[in-house]
Structures are given as structure tokens and as C-alpha cells.
Design goal:
Layout (H helix, E strand, L loop, with lengths): L2 E8 L3 E3 L11 H16 L4 H10 L13 E5 L5 E3 L22 E4 L4 E6 L3 H10 L2 H6 L14 E3 L13 E6 L6 H15 L3 E4 L5 E5 L2 H7 L6 H9 L1 H10 L4 H4 L17 E4 L5 E7 L11 E9 L2 E8 L10 E6 L2 E6 L6 H8 L7 H4 L8 H24 L1
Antiparallel strand pairs: 1-6, 1-7, 2-5, 3-6, 4-5, 8-14, 9-10, 11-12, 12-15, 13-14, 15-16
Helix pairs in contact: 1-2, 5-12, 7-8
Length: 402
């Protein structure tokens, strides 16, 4: 039989630019290229280029392309629930865009399972897909639509579907929500977690009073390697008077005082931000330009996969993509008000090594990492719970392997 049907269930909203069209859900034009790459990589035993050569030998491509010769179709008996994207911190794409703008996006969500059909006239290709392609792994490690690395557009096989398996990952934590569709609560928790990894958190209240402060764990990791945090280097070059003021006000925290001759651009290893607006007191735009013209954007290698596991609970699984070697050891020009600073990304970086390092309590203890005055803040409680779960889950997975 040359048709394979699986049942899919949606777990988080898809940020959709075609929300006004019939069947505004997963699009074959987005899913198929990703699935092709996944199939070819598996065909090449982990090597995409070898997979292409094997597929060419079997004549599985459409013409002279690298598109595999099968069709993909999604069908649903219900209309997606289309809603506005309101108060979601992880998405800013609609700012300054009217809702009649072609780039204006909305949430699309299907409450019931729907079907994905794969059809091909090539018996051998269908046999390969049926026998050797694990679609549960494909959907576990991929989200779709905008902001997919932060958990939007999460779909997974329905438990009643052919090929369903429990998701396997070394990293997982659970988020409690007040109701199943409280997307703001879900994504605000994800936002707080991701900021703790990448940029750190400096939450301000009235009169610029600090309500909660959490140093970036990337800073902590690279400090252990005697590499200076890029934000410190940028402040030294462009905002030195403000840096000295911050040191006095915050009683000389190591994120402001640690110095090393080895200065690198490290924050962008978890997603390149080419234009940052530094707020009070800096009031400046910080622009980063690569000396390599092929690098104008770099998405986060960390994939967060929220899966609803009960009415008011989501398990967030974490997967990693290998960082493109072309992004490592690359020089960037950091520009502020016509002044420049050259910083390079590190020569090597493993996201998995980073996670294992921070989950070792000898390296990172949240109770010591965060000043006692902030321990009663809700964001501290949230992060305390997340990192405790991550440690315990990793121990369980490692014990199973041993």
C-alpha cells in the first residue's frame, strides 16, 4: 500500500500568517522539506549528504531536485480556532502591523486530532518510510510556524496513531497552568526559563527598582572557561561610566567585574540578535554584523517541545540541534553610535555539555546564584522548580542508560 496515514494532535498554538484561509493549520510546504531532510539523514545513517546519494541511486527524487517523490496532505474535520496573539512575551512580530496587513499573524489551534497522509507511487520509497523512518522522533524534535524553537506550533502523534511512542529526551520539566488554553501562563514560564539560560533576568519596577535579578547561566559557564561575557565587553567599550555606576549600585557582582583577556561573543550562541535595543540608562541600539556575509541570522539550537500531559499540565521536552560550524569562531563587528568593537564567537560549543554543566549542583546552585533578597519572588520559585526537575529527570535517564 502506497499510503500512510497517521493521527496528529496539536499541543500549542501555531503562529499563522494565513489565518484567514480555510484549514489554517500545518502546511505541507513547511513540513515536507523538514521531513525530507529527516528521512535523508536517517537514510545516510546520520549523514544528510550520504542520504542524498543513496536516494539518487534509488531514483527517489522529483526530477533534479532534492525533494523526495511523495505527497503530503493534512485533513481535519474541524475548523481551527483562530485567536489574537495578545500579551505573549515571546512573540513581537505583530508590533506596528495592522490586522489587515499580509504579515499580521494570529494563533491557529485544533482541539481534536487530525490526519497526515503520505502518498507515493514509489513502492520502495514507501517501504523505506514505513520500515525505517520514525515519525514520532521527527515530530518530537520539530515545531512549526513562527517562534518554533520557543515551543509554538507543537504537534505530536496522537496516542491512538500508528507509530506512537513516548517522547525520549534527557531533559524535561513540567509547567502547571490554571486552564489548558492559558497560553500566556505557559509561554511566560518558558520565557523566564530561556532568559535564565541566555540573557539573564533584570526585572524592574517603579523608579527603576530591581524586583528580580538572575545572572545568565551562559555567563556562568563561560566564566568557568575564563572567557569574558560579551555584555561586559560591550559596556566597557561603549558605556563605561554606566558600567562603573552599575558596579557601585549592585555591590560589584561578578557579571560586571569579572575580566579576562579572552573576550568572546557568547550570548548569541543561543540565537543571534543582530539588533538589540538597550534601554535605560543606555538608550542605544547595539548592532552586530558578521564578517561572514552568509551569517545574517542564527536561530537558537535549543528546541523546547511542550506536550500537554493532563488537563492543566504541560511537559516541556528539550532537544538540541548541532551548531553550524560556520557560526563558530566567526568575527562580528559590534556597533554603537558609529563606534565599533570586534568580538568573535567561541571556537567550540556544545549545548549538551552546557546543560550537563549547569545541572551539576557544584557548578550552579540557584540558592547561591540568586541573592537571598529575591528568593521570595515568583520567578525565583518558578526557576527553582524547573531546575530541580531538570536535575532529577537527567539523573533518572542516566541511571536507566547505565
Amino acid at each position: 500500500m502506497n499510503r500512510l496515514t497517521i493521527k496528529l494532535r496539536q499541543h500549542t498554538p501555531l503562529i499563522h500568517f494565513q489565518h484567514d484561509q480555510v484549514g489554517a493549520t500545518l502546511r505541507a510546504t513547511e513540513v515536507k522539506p523538514k521531513l525530507d531532510k529527516f528521512i535523508l539523514t536517517q537514510l545516510g545513517n546520520g549523514n544528510y549528504d550520504k542520504g542524498i546519494e543513496r536516494a539518487k541511486g534509488k531514483r527517489w527524487f522529483i526530477g533534479n531536485t532534492n525533494a523526495l517523490d511523495y505527497k503530503l496532505r493534512f485533513t481535519s474535520s474541524e475548523k481551527p480556532d483562530i485567536s489574537e496573539i495578545n500579551n505573549i512575551r515571546l512573540y513581537f512580530g505583530n508590533l506596528a502591523k495592522g490586522d489587515n496587513n499580509s504579515e499580521y499573524k494570529k494563533f491557529s489551534f485544533l482541539k481534536n486530532f487530525f490526519q497526515m497522509e503520505i502518498f507515493t507511487l514509489q513502492n520502495s520509497l514507501m517501504n523505506e518510510i514505513r520500515g525505517n523512518v520514525d515519525l514520532s522522533v521527527f515530530f518530537a524534535q520539530n515545531n512549526f510556524g513562527s517562534r518554533q524553537s520557543k515551543g509554538f506550533g507543537s504537534f505530536y502523534l496522537d496516542k491512538s496513531s500508528e507509530g506512537y511512542k513516548s517522547i525520549e529526551s534527557n531533559y524535561r520539566f513540567v509547567i502547571d497552568v490554571s486552564r489548558p488554553d492559558n497560553w500566556q501562563q505557559l509561554f511566560e514560564t518558558i520565557d523566564v526559563f530561556y532568559k535564565s539560560l541566555r540573557s539573564g533576568i533584570n526585572l524592574k519596577g517603579k523608579q527603576d527598582k530591581t524586583l528580580f535579578y538572575f545572572k545568565s547561566l551562559l555567563f556562568l559557564y563561560f566564566k568557568s572557561k575564563n572567557i569574558q561575557w560579551d555584555k561586559k565587553s560591550i559596556k566597557e567599550r561603549f558605556f563605561n561610566s554606566d558600567l562603573e555606576k552599575d558596579k557601585r549600585e549592585h555591590k560589584n557582582p561578578d557579571i560586571l567585574t569579572f575580566r579576562s583577556a579572552e573576550k568572546r561573543l557568547v550570548k548569541d550562541l543561543l540565537g543571534l540578535s543582530t539588533n538589540e535595543n538597550w534601554r535605560i540608562p543606555y538608550r542605544s541600539s547595539v548592532i552586530k554584523k558578521s564578517d561572514n556575509d552568509s551569517i545574517d541570522r542564527f536561530k537558537s539550537p535549543v528546541i523546547l517541545k511542550p506536550i500537554q500531559i493532563s488537563e492543566k499540565k504541560f511537559a516541556v521536552y528539550i532537544f538540541f540541534n548541532v551548531i553550524d560550524q560556520n557560526f563558530l569562531n566567526q568575527q562580528f563587528s559590534v556597533e554603537v553610535r558609529d563606534k565599533k568593537l570586534n568580538l568573535s564567537t567561541p571556537a567550540e560549543f556544545s549545548v549538551n555539555d552546557f546543560f550537563k554543566w549547569i545541572l551539576n549542583e557544584e557548578n550552579f546552585d540557584i540558592h547561591k546564584h540568586v541573592d537571598l533578597v529575591y528568593h521570595s519572588h515568583p520567578q525565583f520559585k518558578t526557576l527553582e522548580k524547573i531546575y530541580e526537575q531538570l536535575r532529577e529527570y537527567l539523573k533518572i535517564k542516566e541511571n536507566v542508560k547505565s
